[in-house]
Design goal:
Length: 279
């Protein structure tokens, strides 16, 4: 599978000279199967550019998984151009835990006085599928959800294809257990031996003195999880809106020092918009 990042920022899109290398768009990931099928996770502002690419490629179908419905994960949805073409098919997978489909949510935000285009202008065929089992198939992927430790609930995912494991846990607070969230040990076992773990790394330890309970992790907690779970690669994700490129570089250097001091073989990067990897 190929994993590509279209937006790695948390909370709100940012722009300016301090955010050039890691990018300013909010959460959106693309996972391509070996048969070139497209699975999208989250519809933050990064999904706008992904939509552009799908149109250029004349790729007429995709599946969409949502982690949750906070603004930074849905705000790009009305700007996803394939929605306005009837030749496009979008399969949306949701769970009973979240209890609402993306169309119900979007129906709320694409309404006066919030937005000028009506939901009736959406021409794409959107199919909603609800899962109840512990894992389900999307194209050639096996998808396994896990409840996040985050306000208002949400899901993280493990996506497996041909023995390769990708774990995506954004908006997950390892240092505090929210309603419906799991224990640290559960996230550790869920991530065990993943080829790639992408984890929320919004805060520094200083930030966390004031933000405990807000639903995000420190980058050191994310690193500890990756080390404990024996994953091969960790990509830090959901960058704080004020974290400059240089700040993020420093976070990564510090993580690499810790990895070295533990004699571990973990590879650590901070995710940037446009970053991709083939597992
Ligand atoms: Zn978020
Ligand atoms: Zn959130």
């Amino acid at each position: 599978m190929i994993i590509r990042c279209w937006g790695a920022r948390g909370s709100i899109p940012v722009s300016g000279k301090d955010f050039i290398r890691y990018g300013g768009d909010t959460a959106c990931m693309e996972i391509r199967s070996e048969n070139d099928e497209v699975l999208i996770i989250d519809a933050g502002s990064g999904i706008r550019n992904l939509g552009q690419r799908l149109i250029t490629e004349e790729k007429h179908s995709a599946a969409l998984l949502m982690t949750h419905f906070h603004w930074d994960h849905i705000l790009g949805f009305p700007f996803f151009k394939p929605l306005y073409h009837e030749s496009y098919h979008l399969e949306n997978h949701g769970s009973l835990a979240v209890r609402r489909t993306i169309m119900e949510i979007i129906n709320g935000i694409m309404a006066p006085p919030f937005f000028p285009v009506h939901i009736e202008d959406i021409r794409a065929q959107i199919h909603y599928r609800e899962w109840e089992e512990e894992s389900f198939s999307v194209y050639s992927f096996i998808v396994e959800p896990i409840a996040l430790s985050h306000p208002n609930r949400g899901n993280g995912y493990k996506i497996t294809e041909n023995g390769k494991k990708f774990v995506f846990l954004t908006d997950n607070e390892l240092g505090y257990r929210h309603e419906n969230g799991w224990r640290y040990e559960d996230y550790r076992e869920f991530s065990r031996n993943a080829d790639l773990l992408v984890h929320d790394a919004e805060y520094t330890e200083d930030d966390y003195q004031k933000t405990k309970g807000w639903g995000h992790s420190t980058y050191k907690d994310a690193l500890q999880l990756a080390l404990d779970a024996g994953v091969r690669r960790l990509w830090l994700f959901h960058h704080h809106q004020e974290r400059s490129d240089d700040d993020i570089d420093r976070m990564v250097l510090e993580c690499r020092e810790i990895i070295k001091s533990r004699n571990a073989s973990l590879e650590c990067f901070a995710m940037y918009q446009g970053m991709e990897i083939t597992l």
